[in-house]
Amino acid sequence: MDFKTYVRDIQDFPEKGIVFKDISPLLKDERAFQAATKAMIAMVGNNAVDKVIGIESRGFFFAPLLAFELSAGFVPVRKVGKLPADKISRTYALEYGSDTLEIHSDSITKGDRVLIHDDVLATGGTARAACELVESLGGEVVLCHFLLELDFLNGRRRLENYPAKSLMAF
Ligand SMILES: O=P(O)(O)OC[C@H]1O[C@H](OP(=O)(O)OP(=O)(O)O)[C@H](O)[C@@H]1O
Ligand SMILES: Nc1ncnc2[nH]cnc12
């Protein structure tokens, strides 16, 4: 299946000059959604995984499905102010603006093997911040895992210390 045909370009969203990759057509098509989920599970290979991190918001579409299939726990990394218990934070730059991510301090056990999932790898700032949060809690990042990456923004450079895979590249 050519998954790229289920991703559409939206010009000037969320601000002028940005071409936004909208994955809604893939999510709403039951065959494409199921096939993409299975392909993303296959991308994990033989890596043993204890926890799957999903990054708010769009990382939440697939991360719990991956956790279920990998028999791993699911841990949300959320935007600032959403997590109720003791947490740690990291601020990072985006293709558009900046943001702060948080994770519960007790969500990772020292030595956990962690897969970090998000829908899009753009500049890599978001995924890098998530990796650093996991490592500061004693987790080991075994894979940064994306539905798609934007090659021209070279996010892999920000993730040079971590293995990274994506289902599609644009
Ligand atoms: O590689 P980067 O340049 O860091 O960009 C990638 C991030 O940008 C988008 O999230 P966004 O902040 O737009 O939030 P959303 O998931 O809530 O839509 C996307 O879902 C990734 O999380
Ligand atoms: N151009 C883009 N399209 C969709 N998600 C993004 N996240 C960061 N940049 C993006």
From TrEMBL:
InterPro entries, per database record = Ade_phspho_trans, PRTase-like, PRTase_dom, UPRTase/APRTase
Query: Is Transferase among this UniProt entry's keywords?
Result: yes
Per the record's keyword annotation, is Glycosyltransferase included, yes or no? yes
Q: Which domain of life is it from?
A: Bacteria
Q: Name one GO biological process term.
A: purine ribonucleoside salvage
Identify the pathway: Purine metabolism; AMP biosynthesis via salvage pathway; AMP from adenine: step 1/1
Q: What exactly does this protein do? A: Catalyzes a salvage reaction resulting in the formation of AMP, that is energically less costly than de novo synthesis.
Localization per record: Cytoplasm
- Phosphoribosyltransferase domain: which residues? 30-148
Q: Which UniProt keywords apply?
A: Cytoplasm, Glycosyltransferase, Purine salvage, Transferase
The record's family statement is: Belongs to the purine/pyrimidine phosphoribosyltransferase family.
Enzyme class at the top of the EC tree: transferase
Which Enzyme Commission numbers does its entry carry?
2.4.2.7
GO cellular component assignments: cytoplasm
- Taxonomic path: Bacteria, Pseudomonadati, Bacteroidota, Flavobacteriia, Flavobacteriales
This chain belongs to the protein called Adenine phosphoribosyltransferase
Record note on quaternary structure: Homodimer.
Give the primary localization class: cytoplasm
GO MF annotations for this entry? Answer: adenine binding; adenine phosphoribosyltransferase activity; AMP binding
User: Reaction(s) catalyzed by this protein?
Assistant: AMP + diphosphate = 5-phospho-alpha-D-ribose 1-diphosphate + adenine
Any Pfam family the entry gives: Pribosyltran
